[in-house]
Amino acid sequence: MAAVAAVAGLNGCAAHKALLTGGARPDWVDGHSSQYPDSAYLRGVGMGDNRQDAESSARGQISQYFSSLVTVLTQTSSSEADKTRGGKTQSSFEDKVSRDIRVASQQTLEGVRIAADWTDPQTRTYYALAVLDRAKAGAVMRDKIEAFDHQCAQWQSQFSSASGAFQKAKDAMKLLSLMKARAKLNDQLRLLDGQGLPAPYDAASVKTQAAQALSVLAVSVAVEGPGASRVRSGIVAALSTLGLSAAKPGSAADIAINAHVQTQTLEVPADTDPGWHWVRSQAVVDFTDERAGRTFLSLKTDDREASVSDQEAKQRSYSGLAAGLTKKVSQALTDYLEGQ
């Protein structure tokens, strides 16, 4: 929140209007303003022991109106930093969409400015008024929403004309990602103009079509090695979170998921009770496009567990692998389907 306030502050300092020391108490200190009415401005009133703190607090008040966008900025930065492979940052379609939201939110918050300051002559408390022009900020939001609507129309057309189940699933994931981003921005636009921008498509219908496209995507799951049934359950659980289901053994599949599990007994750490048993299990998972006959994704996960029983330690490690794969497989497939 402080980082966003600092961005807004660059514009606010340049547009600073007036500093009032003493004198009559301004109406904006008590939450009302004849000069900056609610109908035309979002207002934030801050107070502090000095002018800088008061102004920072005032900007923060306005930033709170856009708390969901601030969260997007933080999450996007983290996800982009984490998605690296071979020393290169990987960018999914969803990351790109989130960056579009970040640009729109930064442009909006750059419109925040400090309109006035006042110091209470008796308490020496500093007050600051930050304002954001609703019309100007709303224009920024509308431009980006309309850009999303244009992209949605393109992906809707491509989704409708796609012939293969795999391609339809890819187009569906991109379309849903755009729709979620559009909804976030439209929520913020409603804060500015009280209305938002009606979608040029039926969101419920699009979601239903996308869900159907994912539901018919056939995915086979085969696991070899110790704890195979437990690990397979974790992969199947990941598919269900995406609206996918595992195909019956022997049936044709669009995607084949093949996993191999290995388990090894570890030496007991010197600082651990020698009566405990330590094991480490690892799963290597490959995803193959059966139509194209190529492996398009691979991931690896492992889990280390201990118990007074060797068998119990192994069972715990299989459960740990399953839990890890439920999360990793879901994210990996989402990134792939969106990114192609």
Strand order of the largest sheet: 8-7-9-10-11
**Helix run count:** 9
The string of secondary-structure elements, in order, is: HEEHHEEHEEHHHEHEEEEH
What is the end-to-end distance?
A: 33 Å
Number of domains: 3
Largest sheet: 5 strands, mixed
Mean pLDDT: 83
Helix content: 40-55%
- Rough shape? flat
Q: What's the gyration radius in Å?
A: 27 Å
Strand % is 15-25%
Give the class from helix and strand content and strand pairing: alpha/beta
Quick one: how many beta strands?
Answer: 11
Low-confidence runs (pLDDT<50, min 5 residues)? 1-18, 70-89
Feature tags:
9 helices, flat, alpha/beta, 340 residues, 3 domains, 4-stranded mixed beta sheet
Note the topology.
Elements: H1 2-14, E1 19-21, E2 41-48, H2 51-63, H3 67-82, E3 84-85, E4 88-89, H4 93-109, E5 113-119, E6 126-133, H5 134-161, H6 165-193, H7 203-215, E7 218-224, H8 228-241, E8 245-246, E9 255-266, E10 277-289, E11 294-307, H9 310-339
Parallel strand pairs: 1-5, 7-8, 7-9
Antiparallel strand pairs: 2-6, 3-4, 5-6, 9-10, 10-11
Can you offer a commentary on this structure?
The chain is α/β, with parallel strands linked by helices and 340 residues long. It has three domains: 135 residues, no CATH class; 70 residues; 123 residues, Double Stranded RNA Binding Domain, CATH 3.30.160.150. It has nine helices and eleven strands. A five-stranded mixed beta sheet has the order 8-7-9-10-11, covered by helices on one side. The longest helix is centred in the C-terminal third of the chain and has 30 residues. It starts with a helix and ends with a helix. The N terminus is likely disordered.
